[in-house]
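Methods: example folding runs. The two proteins below were folded one after another, and each record is reproduced exactly as written to the output file, sequence line first and structure-token line second.
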Amino acid sequence: MRSPLLFALPLVFLGLDCAAVADDDSDKPFAEAHIVLQLADGDAESQSRVLSVANNLIKHYGGPDFVDIEIVAYGPGLSLLYPDNPNKERISSLLTNEIRFVGCLNTVATIERKTGKRPQLIAATIPVQTGVARLVERAQQGYVVIRP
């Protein structure tokens, strides 16, 4: 059996980050690009824009198998993940195209502290403690972070 190091060596010589390859938890072996879309704004225009960018990237790369996209929502942007969001049909469509939606639990806790009510998020939300830390981690893993 070959050592995992032997498989990593060619990647080092090609200038690729071995950690990015090893830590990537997406299930898209043919993805040409790994992209994180950052959403910190809660206004309708910003939310619509991030969803449009995700859709345009799927089209550009020729389908969801060829691009790995994650949308990280925090602060006022977390409202994108509320079940009554007016974009729920667009979100549902993107979910069928394997776009991941990540929600910041620090934002959830802040909203709960301020309002006395914990906001509900769509079932497909991937919870992370800190949305901004998720952006940093993904950047370290080789993802391109974009704020549309």
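Second run, written to the same file directly after the first:
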Amino acid sequence: MQKTAIIIGIILFVFFACAAPRDVATEDKEDLKGIEITENTEPEKEDTIEYELTIFDPGFERWFTRTAKPMSFYNEDHLASWNRNLVQQWNSMLGSSWLRDCMPTSYIDYRPNIDYGKELNYRLFYYFRYVHERCRIFRQTPGEWRN
């Protein structure tokens, strides 16, 4: 039964990976996990681009609700700065084999010159914290994560 669930999860993952060019996934000890950053353009406004972060980890929302500080606690520059650092660490771990169950399996295309907005940066920041608390994969982390 568990193998069937994993196969279905992999099929769904492949479907989502083909549908969005900025797809990110990570295998965790329990289930196939991942996140996705996508661009949404509004037809009425030619120059407006919105970004959306989709997290495919069923345990994240519950953890996030219990753990996250209010968004107003953070400065957007602080979140974006740490996300650039954490994305760089994440992408550098691709192909590593020292922690197979927790290692990232897909590249995150997070560009420093793009303004993703505070909400996306906030949720991505907390997703990285969630992964780090479960797997301890990041070498450099914000001081508040060490509590």
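Comment on the second run: The longest strand covers residues 32-41.
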